[in-house]
Amino acid sequence: MVVLNDQLHKDLMKIVRPYDDQISIAAKGSDGFSFTYQAEVPMLSASLIKLPILLYAFKKSEQNKRLLDQLVRFDDQQIVGGSGVLQVLSSREWKVCDLLALMINVSDNTATNLMIDFLGLSNLQKWVKDQGFLETKIERKLMDEAAQKEGRTNWISARDANKMIQQLFIGSGALPKEAQSWLLKQQFRYKLPGLFDEKDQPVASIIRRARWKQLIMMPVFCL
Question: Which pTM value belongs to this model?
Answer without folding.
Answer: 0.83
